[in-house]
Model the fold of this input.
Amino acid sequence: MTFLQPWLLLTLPLIALPVIIHLINQQRFQSVEWAAMMFLLSAKALSRGYSRLRQWLIMLLRMLAVAAAILAISRPLSQGWLAVVGGDRASAAIVLLDRSPSMSQASTVGGESKLTTARRQVAAALETLGTSRVVLIDSVSCTPHEMSSPRGILQVPEAEPAAAAADLPLLLQAACDQIGASKSAASTIWICSDQRANDWKVSDGAWSAIREAVAKVPQSVRLTLLGYAEPAADNLAVRVTRAALEPRGKAWELLLDIVIRRQADGGTARVPVQIELGPARSTVEVELTGTETVLTRHAIPIDAAALAQTATMAGGAEGDRESAQANGWGRVSIPTDSNLADNDFYVAFGTPPIRRTLVVTEDSQAGVQTKRTLELIAGIPPDKLLRAATEAVAAEAVADMSLDDVALILWQAALPEAGAADAVNRFITRGGQVIFLPPESPTTTAFNGLAWQTWTEHSPPLRPSSWRADEGLLAATLTGAALPVGELELRRTCGITGEGTPLAVFPDGRPLLVRAAGDRGGASFLATTPAVRDSDLAANGVVLYAVVQRAIDAGLETVGNARQVDAGSMVLGGTDVGSKRSTQQRSQEDWRQIAGPPSASTEAGFHAGVYASRGRLLAVNRPAAEDAAEVVDDRQIETLFQGLSFSRFEQKAGGLGAIVEEVWRLFLIALLVALVVEGLLCLPRRLPDRLQSGLRGSAKLPAAQRSREAVA
Amino acid sequence: MSSEFTDRPTRTFLDSGVLSRLSAVPLLSRRPMVGGVSGRHVSPHRGSSVEFAEYRKYVPGDDLRRLDWRVYGRTDRNYVKEYEADTNLRCCFVVDSSGSMGYGSTGITRIDYARRLAGTLGFLACRQGDAVGISCVAEGIVRHLPPRRNPAHLRLVLDALEQVRPQGASRLPQVLHELAETVRQRALIVIVSDLFVDPEELASCFGHLRFRKHDVAVFHLLDPQEMAFDFRRPTRFLDMEGGSPLFADPLDIADRYMQALETYLGSLKKIVMEQGIDYHRTLLDEDYEKVLARFLVSRASGKGMR
Done:
């Protein structure tokens, strides 16, 4: 238990005061000569049992009363009902605030969100504790913000809800760094989170490093988790998984894939989904069954004239009309429920950009043949309204090229090294796609963990035995028909070594197509080339065409003038935000928010909305993982903080109880109760009336009685 | 008689005013007494008082003067008219002189109170011609004066009262048994004591005295402090009869003390009712004159009961 006036506990030995007074009183006895000893002896004989117990009880109650008085004036603090919490006046408090959208879940009574409740409770607790130094580390910036007072947590914009997911290991690492840099003798880390699994990243290897870091900190560190894991079964979340502008005759159609999700199966429900596209609004009712319903390819016709009016110059003010692209944005909403953060989803769409492909081949006969095939396949767009462009370059030239408007690189040469490798890596990190094809003379150079082995000729030709038809470059078509991958004939293949995800394999287990490991998965390795002597990829061009066009589509997601990004995946604002997040892209452009809840410009990219810059649109929304209701259970959390001074307190959104509160009233009540009971026990037993009158009444027997005596 | 007392010291426990006021009420026995001379008390024998008793057939040898001639004239039968006999009584005071009699919280000790009661009663008895004796009792009979009628003997009794000092344990039951045997004729036994003995033993003593046809009167002297037990501080109680001291917190044991006292008084009450004892519980803060007046009047109103 923590006390605001702990030095008063030095007076605890005063608990022995009743005993001392009793002993002194025993020594201060009076001596009287007494005649009626026979009654005293009888009384003494009767007082062995209950009386002895009563005396002990009285003594105990007096000691309790003194103890309660001392504890009360020491101003004890407690969480809930006498649970022990950490923190004292001298320590610094580091508040790790989970600002993820799931923390916006509000209580059914009062409507206060988990985030607001957490801020209020932590601020009140720190204020009660009188913590001298308060540092806020929020899940958006992951950087420490010094608060002038605990109340600052309620006021700073860094504690407002955001659309980006939290990264608890990153927050804790930042807290460890902060503790290491500070000079506080003791620190308390307050973690305010709803324990979502996607935020906690339980399997992240950083946890062990964090435990070690906290254990090694010379200062005393105490961790307190305020868990707001309460689920919201009735909460609905809307998400648009695809927003594509497709030509329909001379007009355009916006095709939306809308997902409605809820955390628990609550039977069938009809959910009105409102779609706003500029001034136009439409509502579609979606029947929700189970936990998730997907409305695929919901088409909304777009007025071509209106779209043309919004045409902007993607290449800037000096661009040519050929590259002009039109774009727009909209919002998909569902009715308000317990979590406001997942009721809206912003979409940005635009006319498809030029499908630009870079073909890199080695200078050989086979390379020339491959180059022609690849240029042909990449240069034919899937729709006549789409435009495609291919460019063949030598591998050495890639390092100096601008790859900003390139969607796909088809690389049939020795794997890139040095400057070329850096350029390709940047390209992949930006969202571009690369398909590597084996060179004539494979080298041991590896790229993204994968490398070529040697060529192997197959006679008869090999056919792939299995491939991933559910996702990736070889996925089935929208109609559900599988690509004819099994019909391919591979006469010569090059082995692929390293860690990757095979998308297609031969019967002997060797891969045909491998996706390199990594967050973005923008690099794929194809084990053969479309050259005639190697395969019939060119002759049976459906598979290769699908693979290339799909890769171009994937690469265009970051090239087009309208993009969908997860909140937190790109830093759009000031330079001081997101410095801890190594995986984030940093945009040098000046993005301004044109739709969505207002937010600080320094946190652009972390809040849902639509951002615009030089005619390009960026729809920022919460990550898909935020819609998953999975939480980290208590056992897992105990494991994560094993060996550390850790305590966890379950809280609820809108909870009115304080985390830390002074409980001196409780001790005062205990004091009063002890005194009252002691007083009752000390009361001498009231003599029966008959005894009182018998002892105090007339000393002479009544006359009638005397008469009877006389007669007797 | 007055000249005899002039050279004697004044008895501090006697108050002439009280004596003069109480002398108006005779000290009567509740039971027939067998005295040696005529007195104010009923005798079991027929005598020559003016109070008619009964008729009895004449038998040869009866005094002819007692023959009722009127009855003979009416019935032609000889009847002798008999009258009640009045006699004196022997009044034996049994004064407890054990250590506990020295207790008194109201400015007067129990022995002082006993002196006043016994001295006054003795004076009144002697004055009406009764024999007065005294036995001072502690661990045994400390002083014993058998009943005598003459005033000189009263002086010895008063001397004994004055000189007796409370000390030692009390062996009142044994002494009462002994007195029951040694007092040969019917007597008025006046016991002045705190009766801090086992009630069962007292019952035995009283039964023995009643068996010997003694008229037993008891002045049970109790101090108000003993009744109230009004102590606040832890106290070491020193036994006035020489027993071991006892340390106790009065607040703890007051209720049980009262219980024990109640039980004791209840037992005593039952005993005196069963034995027909003239019992007077007397608190030391009471005026002894009132106590004696109540005693005398109650006896006077009960005259004639045999």
User: Anything to note?
Assistant: The interface with chain B takes residues 25-26, 28-44, 46-47, 51, 54-55, 682, 684-685, 687, 691, 694-696, 699-701, 703, 705-712 of chain A (CB under 8 Å). The two ends of chain A are 78 Å apart (CA to CA).
